[in-house]
From TrEMBL:
Its cofactor is FAD. The keyword Transport does not apply. PANTHER family: OS12G0638800 PROTEIN. It holds the Pfam family HI0933_like_1st. NCBIfam families: aminoacetone oxidase family FAD-binding enzyme (TIGR00275). Keywords: FAD, Flavoprotein. This is Aminoacetone oxidase family FAD-binding enzyme. Gene3D superfamilies: FAD/NAD(P)-binding domain (3.50.50.60), HI0933 insert domain-like (1.10.8.260), Translation factors (2.40.30.10). Residues 7-412 form the RsdA/BaiN/AoA(So)-like Rossmann fold-like domain. The keyword Secreted does not apply. Signal peptide: none annotated. Residues 197-358 form the RsdA/BaiN/AoA(So)-like insert domain.
Length: 414
C-alpha cells in the first residue's frame, strides 16, 4: 500500500537535506527543498579537500567505534542505511566510487562537484522544488504539531505536513552553517547541548618553533596528548605544521577528544617521530649514521634521519653543540637526541574556531528525538537530521555517514 501523498518541506540543501528530499520524493510526496545559499551542497563541496570522502567502507562495528557522541542512538540509522547502502546509492546514480587508505570512499573522479551533481540530477528527476536564497526564519507549530515554515525575506508562510530540519551546525559558517537549526529547536522547547568546534587544528604555545616548521608534513608518526599525566589520546597518522600550530588528520581526530579538557594549563602534545623503532633500535640506527659521518659536525649528520626542515629544530631541542664532531658526541648526549625524537613535546594553547572546524560537537539532545524515525518527541511532524543533532564522529567519512543514515530514516518516515 502506497503512502498518502504529503507536502514535505526540507530546510537546508546540504548532504543530509538533499538525500532526505530524494527519499521523501521517491515515496511519492510533494517535496519543497529550501536553501538560504545561492546553490546546494556548499559544505559538501569543500569536504575531503574538495574530493568528498562520502563514507568509510569499514565493518559496522568500526562505524560505531568512530562515532564520538551517542553512538547507540545511531543503531537503527546505521543498520537501516549502512555505508554500503550509501555506496550503492551513488553507484546507481552513475557516480563511480573508489576505496582508499583507511577505508575512505571517494568519487572515482576526485571531484566533490560530481557528488553534488548526481544528487541534483536525481532531485530534478523526482521533480523536487528547490528554492535558493530562501532563508527560513521560523518553524510554525500549533498544539505541539508542525504547520509549516515562515520565510525570512518575504514573511511568507508555507504550509507543510512535515518539516525536516537539515541546517547543519556552526562549522564553516561561510557555507551557511550559522546555527539556525539550534534556534528552531530551542524555540520548540528542545534542549541543545554545549556546542564546540571539533575536528579542528590546534594552536601551539611554541609559536616560533612551529613557524620554523611551517609547511612540513610528517607521515607515520605517533602523537600522544596528555593532561595532568593522564593520556587523553594516542594514535598513528599524519600531521602538518602551520604558521599557528599543527593540523592534519591525526590532529583533527585528537581535537575531538580534547574538547572537555580545554582550559587545563598542562595540555601537552608529544610527537614520536620514529614510532616503528624502540629507543634501543633508534640509538643503534643513530650510531650507524654517526659512524658513517664520523668526521662530520652534528649539524651535518642528521640528513638520513630527518627531513631537512626539521634538523635545526631537533638540534636545538637536543641541546647538543651543532658544531661538535659526531665521533665526540657522548652516550648521554645521544640519549637526549633519542628522547627528543621519541617525544618531541609541545604545549597546546587552544583549538581553532568554527571557521576551520570540520564539524560541531554538541547539538539537539538525542533523548528528544525518536531514533527509529528522527522525528521530534516534542513536536509531531518535525524531523532533525545530520550535524544539527548531538552526533559527531572522527575523520574518514564517518560524519557524512551520520548525515546520510539519519536523512534516509527521516525521508522514509515522513
Amino acid at each position: 500500500m502506497s503512502k498518502e501523498r504529503k507536502r514535505i518541506i526540507v530546510v537546508g540543501a546540504g548532504a543530509a537535506g538533499m538525500l532526505a528530499a530524494i527519499y521523501a520524493a521517491r515515496n511519492g510526496h510533494e517535496v519543497l527543498l529550501l536553501e538560504k545559499n545561492d546553490k546546494a551542497g556548499k559544505k559538501l563541496y569543500i569536504t575531503g579537500k574538495g574530493r568528498c570522502n562520502i563514507t568509510n567502507a569499514c565493518e559496522m562495528e568500526d562505524l560505531f567505534k568512530n562515532v564520538m557522541s551517542n553512538p547507540k542512538f545511531l543503531y537503527g540509522a546505521f543498520y537501516g542505511y549502512s555505508n554500503y547502502d550509501v555506496i550503492d546509492f551513488f553507484e546507481q546514480l552513475g557516480l563511480k566510487t573508489k576505496i582508499e587508505r583507511g577505508g575512505r570512499v571517494f568519487p572515482e573522479s576526485d571531484k566533490s562537484s560530481d557528488v553534488i551533481g548526481v544528487l541534483l540530477k536525481e532531485l530534478k528527476r523526482l521533480q523536487v522544488d528547490i528554492r535558493y536564497q530562501c532563508e527560513v526564519e521560523q518553524i510554525l507549530t500549533e498544539d505541539s504539531a508542525v504547520k509549516g515554515v515562515l520565510i525570512k525575506k518575504t514573511q511568507e508562510k508555507l504550509s507543510a505536513d512535515n518539516v525536516i530540519v537539515a541546517t547543519g551546525g556552526l562549522s564553516y559558517p561561510s557555507t551557511g552553517s550559522t546555527g539556525d537549526g539550534y534556534r528552531f529547536a530551542k524555540s520548540m522547547g528542545h534542549t541543545v547541548t554545549k556546542l564546540s568546534p571539533s575536528l579542528v587544528p590546534m594552536n601551539m604555545k611554541e609559536i616560533e618553533l612551529v613557524k620554523e616548521l611551517q609547511g612540513l608534513s610528517l607521515k607515520n608518526i605517533e602523537i600522544t596528548v596528555t593532561s595532568q599525566n593522564k593520556v587523553i589520546y594516542s594514535e598513528f597518522g599524519e600531521l602538518l605544521f602551520t604558521h599557528f600550530g599543527i593540523s592534519g588528520p591525526v590532529i583533527l581526530s585528537a581535537s575531538s577528544y580534547l574538547v572537555p579538557y580545554m582550559g587545563q594549563k598542562d595540555l601537552t602534545l608529544s610527537i614520536d617521530l620514529k614510532p616503528a623503532l624502540t629507543k634501543e633500535q633508534l640509538d643503534a640506527r643513530i650510531l650507524r649514521d654517526f659512524d658513517e659521518f664520523k668526521n662530520k659536525q652534528y649539524k651535518n649528520a642528521l640528513d638520513q634521519l630527518l627531513p631537512r626542515k626539521m634538523i635545526q629544530v631537533i638540534i636545538a631541542l637536543s641541546k647538543i653543540d651543532p658544531e661538535k664532531k659526531v665521533n665526540l658526541i657522548t652516550k648521554e648526549e645521544r640519549k637526549r637526541l633519542v628522547d627528543t625524537l621519541k617525544a618531541m613535546t609541545l604545549s597546546i594553547d587552544r583549538l581553532r574556531d568554527y571557521n576551520e572546524a570540520v564539524i560541531t560537537k554538541g547539538g539537539i539532545t538525542v533523548k528528544e528525538i525518536n531514533p527509529s524515525t528522527m522525528e521530534s518527541r516534542l513536536i509531531s511532524g518535525v524531523y532533525y537530521i545530520g550535524e544539527v543533532l548531538d552526533l559527531d564522529a572522527l575523520t574518514g567519512g564517518f560524519n557524512l555517514q551520520i548525515a546520510w543514515s539519519t536523512a534516509y530514516l527521516a525521508g522514509n518516515s515522513v
